């Protein structure tokens, strides 16, 4: 399974409902952009989907979830900790194997930061940190990508490069975006969220930027 | 002002201390205390480093016991911290850390004798309990988000090594280094019960009136602690830890018969041992409670409350000494030296010296506890004020102290003070060994009289008292919403 069919998605904060109840079906091969005002519930929805399809997804959360004290390599390698034995992982912590080093370096090269491989994550800029979290999701290589504002800290050309890469590597994805142009360009389907409900659900071919701005 | 809960709490504690003073035995009983004190300072100023080779051996043993004990304690403590969320583990750790190193040493001495194992375990056991608590607090602070992002099916160990340890590594290392410093102090005072460390050397120099030898020992001890950053380096640490066991000395061999006798006979309450059964147990216990435990608890509590408030007053007086907001570099340097000496000297050694000079009463104990703990907290608070930026037209002098600085640091001052409350009580109990009538006095006399059954009950009571004060301290800190830091 790489698409999913979820219903009865709800979430509350302090007794107040912020999401749902709503249903979302994503078929394999669909690339869904979640758009809407900040506070509309996009992040919460991403988290809810992640909880439901955990085993199948690569996640890029908004707060990135990096281990600051570890170098970039280890933060990316963490995406595949389940693929190796504990011994292998422990040795990698001390001295990574060249095979993994090459894989991770290759990924970082695609993201334009191969030279940062051994720097502690804490020393990176906001945009670089965001790309490390993206590299981890790519390395994880799950059938579905769930990303929450993955390009919020990246400049124009880099943002396009990353979206291109995500589109190419993940057949199925759900990406929360506030940039409407980006959503239309790189996603096949647009889901607009307003007050915790689906207010718009349409193929991106049939939409223009102005159709979406009404949500804001 | 009076409506502020922190001020009210402080005033209550001051009132309790003043009432305690009415009951406390505060006096200078020595016939010529100032001459003795003068002789002692003369001894420190004219140290004699070459009187015997005993000094260097004692120094080496002190370091060796500290390294082995703290290393063992940190490994066990780390393992315990992984299961610290289980209540039985928490209770077990609270119990082993509530018993002072010297009490552990007194217990082990009874059956292992003067074997190195006695000293190593006396440090390692209470330290395991402390490490378990603090390590688990540090590990709990780690950012949980990376752990949630790991692919499902990741092994527990790999998850722990990748997402927990790196986040906490610096804090774990800093805390362990701090504990190593404490371990050196603990190791030094183990000499007072006969182990071959600095305390033993100090006691024998003092009893012979060799103040210059004692002075040399104190100076070497300060140098040892002050230069720790220079000789304790991560790279050579394994060498120390692997090498230290070979420098513990031979001691005396363990007589296993003693070990067996201790557990099967010595610590069994005497009515049971003599076949009087449970009927004899009640009068035995009543006698123990009325004649030993109650007076011991009373004196321990009184002394603790006085020492706590004295520590607080000394802290408030001492922190400006190292604060950037007052005076020039000369005064700050001497302030640093004073605080380093105050906090590096174990309270037990301070109390011992003052007791020799002033004669037995609670006074030397109060002064020793206040100097040591006030030195520690004063240093931390003083450093904290250096991070405060005042407006350019802020008042100067005493107004700056009372209007700008004290109100800003008062909450963390109280947090540190309540954190050390339990530590002060643990030390107060142990100072009884020096002849002040706190719980340690009754434990020590029971052991002298070979009544280990009584000694064990009294140690147990001391531990429970410490656990109670610890819980009360935590309750007050929570009530006043004071944040706490483990490294103090």
Helix and strand arrangement:
The complex is a heterodimer of chains A (216) and B (488).
Chain A: E1 4-13, E2 16-26, E3 31-35, H1 42-53, E4 57-60, H2 72-77, H3 86-94, H4 98-110, H5 126-140, E5 144-148, H6 156-169, E6 172-176, H7 180-186, E7 189-194, E8 197-203, H8 209-213
Parallel strand pairs in A: 3-6, 3-7, 4-5, 5-6
Antiparallel strand pairs in A: 1-2, 7-8
Chain B: H1 5-23, H2 33-45, H3 54-82, H4 87-98, H5 101-112, H6 116-140, H7 145-149, H8 156-190, H9 198-207, H10 211-226, H11 228-231, H12 237-243, H13 256-266, H14 270-273, H15 277-318, H16 329-344, H17 347-358, H18 362-385, H19 397-431, H20 439-448, H21 452-479
Helix pairs in contact in B: 1-15, 2-10, 2-17, 3-6, 3-8, 3-9, 4-6, 4-21, 5-6, 6-8, 9-10, 15-18, 15-19, 15-20, 15-21, 16-18, 17-18, 18-19, 19-21, 20-21
Shape of chain A: globular
Per CATH, the architecture of chain A is: 3-Layer(aba) Sandwich
Beta-strand fraction estimate of chain B: under 5%
- Helical residues, percent of chain B: over 70%
Main β-sheet, spatial strand arrangement of chain A? 4-5-6-3-7-8
Distance between the termini of chain A: 34 Å
The run of helices and strands of chain A is: EEEHEHHHHEHEHEEH
Strand content of chain A: 15-25%
Q: How many distinct helices of chain A?
A: 8
How many structural domains can be distinguished in the coordinates of chain B?
2
Structural class of chain B: mainly alpha
Specify the number of helices of chain B. Answer: 21
- Total beta-strand segments of chain B: 0
| Sheet of most strands of chain A | 6 strands, mixed
Subunit organisation of the chains? heterodimer
Number of strands of chain A: 8
Structural class of chain A: alpha/beta
- Overall mean pLDDT score of chain A? 88
Mean pLDDT of chain B: 89
Any low-confidence stretches of chain A, pLDDT <50, length ≥5? none
């Amino acid at each position: 399974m790489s698409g999913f069919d979820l219903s009865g998605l709800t979430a509350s904060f302090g007794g107040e409902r912020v999401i749902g109840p709503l249903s979302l079906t994503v078929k394999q091969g669909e690339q869904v952009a979640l758009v809407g005002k900040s506070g509309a519930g996009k992040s919460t929805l991403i988290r809810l989907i992640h909880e439901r399809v955990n085993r199948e997804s690569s996640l890029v959360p908004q707060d990135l979830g990096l281990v600051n004290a570890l170098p970039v390599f280890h933060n990316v390698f963490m995406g595949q900790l389940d693929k190796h034995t504990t011994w292998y992982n422990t040795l990698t912590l001390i001295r990574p194997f060249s095979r993994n080093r090459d894989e991770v370096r290759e990924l970082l090269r695609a993201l334009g930061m191969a030279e940062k491989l051994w720097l502690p994550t804490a020393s990176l800029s906001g945009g670089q940190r965001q790309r490390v979290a993206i590299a981890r999701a790519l390395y994880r290589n799950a059938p579905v990508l769930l990303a929450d504002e993955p390009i919020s800290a990246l400049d124009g050309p880099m943002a396009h490069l990353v979206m291109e890469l995500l589109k190419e590597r993940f057949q199925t994805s759900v990406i929360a975006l506030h940039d409407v142009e980006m959503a239309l360009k790189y996603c096949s389907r647009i889901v607009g969220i307003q007050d915790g409900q689906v207010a718009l659900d349409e193929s991106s071919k049939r939409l223009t930027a102005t159709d979406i701005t009404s949500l804001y | 002002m009076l409506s502020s809960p922190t001020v009210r709490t402080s005033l209550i504690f001051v009132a309790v201390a003043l009432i305690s003073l009415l009951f406390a035995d505060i006096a200078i009983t020595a016939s010529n205390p100032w001459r003795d004190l003068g002789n002692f300072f003369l001894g420190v100023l004219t140290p004699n480093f070459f009187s015997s080779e005993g000094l260097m051996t004692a120094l080496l043993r002190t370091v060796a016991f500290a390294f082995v004990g703290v290393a063992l304690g940190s490994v066990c403590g780390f393992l315990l911290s992984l299961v610290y969320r289980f209540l039985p583990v928490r209770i077990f750790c609270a119990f082993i850390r509530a018993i002072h190193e010297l009490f552990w040493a007194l217990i082990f001495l009874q059956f292992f004798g003067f074997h190195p194992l006695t000293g190593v375990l006396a440090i390692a056991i209470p330290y395991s309990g402390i490490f378990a608590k603090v390590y688990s607090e540090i590990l709990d602070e780690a950012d949980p988000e990376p752990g949630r992002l790991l692919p499902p099916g990741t092994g527990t160990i790999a998850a722990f090594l990748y997402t927990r340890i790196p986040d906490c590594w610096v804090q774990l290392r800093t805390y362990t280094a701090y504990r190593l410093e404490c371990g050196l102090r603990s190791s030094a005072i183990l000499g007072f019960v006969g182990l071959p460390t600095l305390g033993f050397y100090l006691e024998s120099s003092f009893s012979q009136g060799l103040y210059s030898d004692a002075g040399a020992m104190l100076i070497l001890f300060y140098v040892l602690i002050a230069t720790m950053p220079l000789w304790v380096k991560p790279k050579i640490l394994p060498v120390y830890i692997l090498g230290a066991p070979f420098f513990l000395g031979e001691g005396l061999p363990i007589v296993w018969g003693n070990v067996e006798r201790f557990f099967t006979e010595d610590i069994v309450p005497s009515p049971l041992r003599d076949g009087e059964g449970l009927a004899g147990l009640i009068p035995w216990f009543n006698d123990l409670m009325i004649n030993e435990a109650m007076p011991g608890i009373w004196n321990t509590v009184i002394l603790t409350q006085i020492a706590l408030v004295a520590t607080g007053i000394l802290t408030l007086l001492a922190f400006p000494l190292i604060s950037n907001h007052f005076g020039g570099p000369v005064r700050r340097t001497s302030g640093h030296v004073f605080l380093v000496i105050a906090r590096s000297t174990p309270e037990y050694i301070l109390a011992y010296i003052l007791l020799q000079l002033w004669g037995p009463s609670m006074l030397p104990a109060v002064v020793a506890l206040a100097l040591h703990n006030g030195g520690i907290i004063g240093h931390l608070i003083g450093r904290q004020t250096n991070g405060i930026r005042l407006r350019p037209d802020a008042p100067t002098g005493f107004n700056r102290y009372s209007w700008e600085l004290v109100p800003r640091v008062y909450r963390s001052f109280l947090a540190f003070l309540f954190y050390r409350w339990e530590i002060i009580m643990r030390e107060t109990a142990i100072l009884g060994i020096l002849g002040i009538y706190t719980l340690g006095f009754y434990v020590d006399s029971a052991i002298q009289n070979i009544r280990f059954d009584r000694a064990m009950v009294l140690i147990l009571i001391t531990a429970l008292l410490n656990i109670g004060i610890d819980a009360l301290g935590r309750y007050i800190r929570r009530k006043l919403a004071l944040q706490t830091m483990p490294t103090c």
